[in-house]
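Per reviewer request, we include the raw input and output of the structure prediction for the construct analysed in the revised manuscript.
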Amino acid sequence: MPLALLALAIGAFGIGTTEFVIMGLLPEVAGDFGVSIPTAGHLVTGYALGVVFGAPLMTVLGTKVSRKRMLMLLMGLFIAGNLLSALAPVFGVMLIGRVVASLAHGAFFGIGSVVAADLVAPDKKAGAIAMMFTGLTVANVIGVPLGTLIGQSIGWRVTFGIVAALGLVGLAGIARLVPDMPKPEGVRLRHELAAFKNVQVLLAMAMTVLGFGGVFAAITYIAPMMTHVAGFADGSVTWLLVLFGLGMVGGNLIGGRYADRALMPMLYVSLGALAVVLALFTLTAHNKIVAAVTIALIGALGFATVPPLQKRVLDQAHGAPTLASAVNIGAFNLGNALSAWLGGIVIAAGLGYTAPNWVGALLAASALALAFVSAALERRDQVTGSVPAGSVPAEERTAVSP
């Protein structure tokens, strides 16, 4: 694999750390600023919304900039946001810093996916995408627990300062290792927008929202579920999340490897197994050992869908994949928000802390159904020889293909 993928993975590591570490530092941040925990929770919500809206916005703004330069600008924005958070004198300023950092998230992974895929042979594209996303998954194993420990021991501002320093390392790596890849000639914003007329692109994004939503329906409420149902001590939740992160790393690499060989079968297996495991979690959550194994499996199966779904969007968007790729990153975060909301509803309805697992199972099963629909439509188009709406015309695609 090219060394440039390492630079992208380092940037992804920093982004993944800053996204999730705040969850473990909310009490410290709330206490420092004198706000309530629910108010401090706006730092999580604000970041997620910034990813959803920032992904298309920053990608559109970067349509006339080379991909390497845009990645460097995004890392600069990420560094600025984290420094602003670390130095924030009041809560409102920190919230602004979180939003600024989040604006880089979706576009970085979206553009980074395109760059990673262009760095390798066609039969290794999903593996290259998975290598970049390894930085995000490893962040949940190392970056988040370590950042939480530092924040609780030394101060949360130190954590965000370190994350900003990681951004500097990622920026230097991109500047040094990523080849200068000018924006392909002939690609215009209307080509990028045309991808959203392609039903296959929309189906892939819907699978992203539902499939990833299935994962976070359970994981969002993992702390009360494990302490009140499984009987774990409060301090054990951190290590359970490390297990989840280890599952993410393994699933991401496996998904990338096999998506290059058989993309749709990989989605069938991972989404189907995810739905089953989430449904079983309503039972396994009552036993400590089995619950821990289940959490690792959810991480593995959930992230086994990431490389194939991202590659599916790239493939179906044809010669104008950058905006679609970035918006699909926003779809992951939309799935997080949707599942957290639905999980909260069933808990509030008195159905218990394991009820979100049923929500997750239904969401994953819905994503699996869409995968079958997508494959059926693709077979029909191959038989009839029709071109999906939103595809770049052949004479234009020749000029813009990687």
